[in-house]
Structure formats: C-alpha cells, structure tokens
C-alpha cells in the first residue's frame, strides 16, 4: 500500500536486522512478528530523519552513545550499578521519577506507541528497543493493558537494554533479566527503598508508596522480599491478597491515559512545530514516498471517519 515512487532510489532508508532489536516478550513472539515490528522501526527512523531536516530534536544524552552503539565500558556491567550511574548522569538523585517517558524523550531517545494494536501479526509484542540507528528508539505497544505502573516498568526495561547491551545480540533471556534488574533499580533505588518500605505488610503504606514512586504494589512487595524485609512466605501471601483486592475492586490499577506525561509526544510535537513553519503531513509523505495516511498512522493520529464503500 505505497506509491510506486517508494521503490525508486533517493528516499531515506534504514536497515535494521531483527537481532538488533530487544523484544520485551521474546518468548511469545514469532520470527515473523519480530520482522514486522523491525520493519516498523525502520519506517519510524525514516520519518524521524525527514522531520529532523526541519526541527532540531533534543540531543541524544546517553553517555557513550556514538550513533548505532554505546562505547563499551561506559556503564558498569552490573545492571543495578548502571541504573544508579544513569540516575546520577541525568541528575535524578534518589527521588521518584514523576514523568518517566517524558524524561526519556527529553534526553533525545525517540519513544512511541506502535500503531499496530489491530494487527494480528504483532498482537503479542509488548515493547522493543534498538540503538542500532542514529538515534536510540523505544517502541511501546498500546495493545497491552496500559496500566500506568506496568507501562513505566516496561519503558525503564527498554532503557536498560539501551544502556547495558551494546554489541550484544538480542534473544538471550539473561539479558531480559538484566533489563528487569535495571528497571527496578532505576525506578526504586534499593538504598532508598530499604528506608521507606514497611517492615511488615501494610497495604495502606504500600499504596501511598505506589502512588509516590509510580510502581505497582506488587513490585513493592517483590522489592521488599529482595531487600530482606519480607520472607518468601509473607510475600506469597501478599500476592494472593493483592489479586483478591483487585478482583473485589478495592485496588484499582490506573490506566496510563490518566498520566499525560507518560504518553510519548516528542515526535508529535516536532511535527506540530514543523507545521507552524509550513511543513505538512503531505509534504512529509512526499519526501518519504509514502501515502499521507501512513505518516498519520505513525504519529498516532487515528482516522475515525467511516469508510465509503460503493456497491
């Protein structure tokens, strides 16, 4: 569904292998699904490349990033130490990160919701990321239940891949665990949590900490067990209690749409700024040799008009 000019030389093109992208739900995705998601990321880079001719994006503020890779040795190999190092680099200190996605975008990392939710080929894909292009890219899927806490952890997980796994091939489950450890430390530094988490199960206190730090109560219980504040048996009882509270409606997981700063918007705002200078979606499409509808799709603009069919 592209104009014939799409196949003519001269248009911006990116080439990305599926092994150069880290997939959050690797075990539940097929090679075909990953290939389609990788092709989407190539198109995303092409769109960013054209927009950057008109609008200056934030510089990539990721230490050691050389365009396509992070210089080895820039960050500690230990995921938790790497998370602390990035927190320090970005001036986050030990405080909660109130606007995680906005923070990631402000440091020049392109973050976007993949407009693939209705595509059966990619329905199982949760999120993925790559630093193999001129800008690091994080793609989050709106097909998953967009619970704010889970969404933030997923974004931090993908950030962990960018920081930790330069030069490593995606597909190793150990790398996924490392990205999880990075995300947990980046969102809830262990040194701080050891002093603020309750020494016994207190769901009221955990609920307030959940709101303050932007993580789920379940993850706080997991953190408590990691630190040694709760036993394994107590943590198991807590998980059962949490599920019961959710079923009874006493514990509500808030959707990410209630947190506008956790919804990617750098790309959309860049286009709005370019439009103020005379650029249009149609001219972007001409540069890319796409149809305007494809540009709007990548920008997250949904066409709600009914389809006219002649019979």
Salient structural properties:
311 residues; mainly alpha; 4-stranded mixed sheet; 12 helices; globular
Question: What is the strand and helix layout of this fold?
Answer:
Layout: E1 22-23, H1 31-51, H2 79-89, H3 100-106, E2 110-113, E3 127-130, E4 137-140, H4 148-164, H5 173-187, H6 190-196, H7 203-213, H8 217-227, H9 232-247, H10 266-276, H11 281-288, H12 292-298
Parallel strand pairs: 2-4
Antiparallel strand pairs: 1-3, 3-4
Helix pairs in contact: 2-5, 4-5, 8-9, 11-12
Mean pLDDT, all residues: 83
User: Approximately what portion of the residues adopt beta-strand conformation?
Assistant: under 5%
Which term fits the overall shape? globular
**Structural class assignment:** mainly alpha
C-alpha Rg (nearest Å)? 21 Å
Number of helices: 12
SSE order, as H and E?
EHHHEEEHHHHHHHHH
| Uncertain segments | none
Distance between the termini: 22 Å
Overview of the structural elements:
- The chain is mainly alpha-helical and 311 residues long.
- It is built from twelve helices and four strands.
- The chain has helices spanning 31-51, 79-89, 100-106, 148-164, 173-187, 190-196, 203-213, 217-227, 232-247, 266-276, 281-288, 292-298, and strands spanning 22-23, 110-113, 127-130, 137-140.
- A four-stranded mixed β-sheet has the order 1-3-4-2, sandwiched between helices.
- 37% of the residues are buried.
- The mean pLDDT is 83.
